[in-house]
Amino acid sequence: MPGHSSLRLPRFPWVSFRDCTTEEIERGRQALSTLGLGGVADQPLLELSEGAQRLVLLVRALVANPELLVLDEPCQGLDAVHTRQVTSAVDRVAREGRACIIYVTHHEEEIPSCITRVLRLKAGRVFVWEGEPG
User: Fold this and answer.
1) pLDDT above 90 (res 56)
2) CB within 8 Å of 4: residues ≥ 6 apart
3) pLDDT, tens digit, for every residue of 33-42?
4) Mean pLDDT over residues 91-97, rounded?
5) CA torsion sign, 132 to 86 to 55 to 96?
6) Between vectors from CA 86 to CA 80 and to CA 87, what angle results, nearest 5°?
7) In this structure, what are the phi and psi dihedrals at residue 89, rounded to the nearest 5 degrees?
8) Beta bridge partners of 99
9) Are 5 and 39 in contact (CB under 8 A)?
10) What are phi and psi of 25, to 5 degrees?
11) Pairing verdict, β 100-104 and 68-72
12) Helical ranges in 1-134 per DSSP H
């Protein structure tokens, strides 16, 4: 959609987004730059790769300074390179102490290293693991 940058999502009649403040856009630009994606801020979101789209959406969520960040299958459908970029970004958020993170995945190998408690469901049973990732 022409005229819509990655930091300003396109409008859809069935979805309502508030406009980002100038401060939020600047924080978003800084965060994109930190993740090595400074050049995508003015590109239309739908023209970015899936991996870049996921990172931009993560940045958009973070500019609101949430206390809790729920990521449901953030790497679904991504290749190994983009999966590493997303999990590295999640690790950075955790290191900065910006938000408590709930990370949902079906793939143990993509769990970011910052995740120290895992709840696993198997055959109707719940297993909990705590500690440093291994």
Assistant:
1) no
2) 10, 44, 45
3) 877 788 888 8
4) 88
5) positive
6) 85
7) -65, -40
8) none
9) no
10) -65, -40
11) parallel
12) 22-34, 50-62, 80-95
User: Which of helix, strand or coil describes residue 108?
Assistant: helix
- What does the pLDDT average to over 21-33? 83
Query: Can you tell me the distance from the alpha carbon of 35 to that of 93, in angstroms, rounded to the nearest whole number?
Result: 11
Residue 52, both tokens: 């870049």
Tokens of 10: 């396109």
Output Rg (C-alpha) for the chain, integer angstroms: 16
**Whole-number mean pLDDT of the chain?**
81
**Residue 67: how many CA atoms within 13 Å on its side-chain side?**
0
Q: What residues contact 16, with CB distance under 8 A and at least 6 apart?
A: none
Q: What DSSP designation does 15 have?
A: B
> From its phi and psi, is residue 65 left (phi > 0), alpha (psi between -120 and 50) or beta?
left
Contact 72, 105 (CB under 8 A): no
Ramachandran area for residue 10 (φ above 0: left; ψ -120 to 50: alpha; else beta): beta
Residue 119 phi, psi dihedral angles, 5° rounding: -110, 120
Name the residue with tokens 């120290």: 116
Q: With 60 as the cut, is the pLDDT of residue 15 above it? A: no
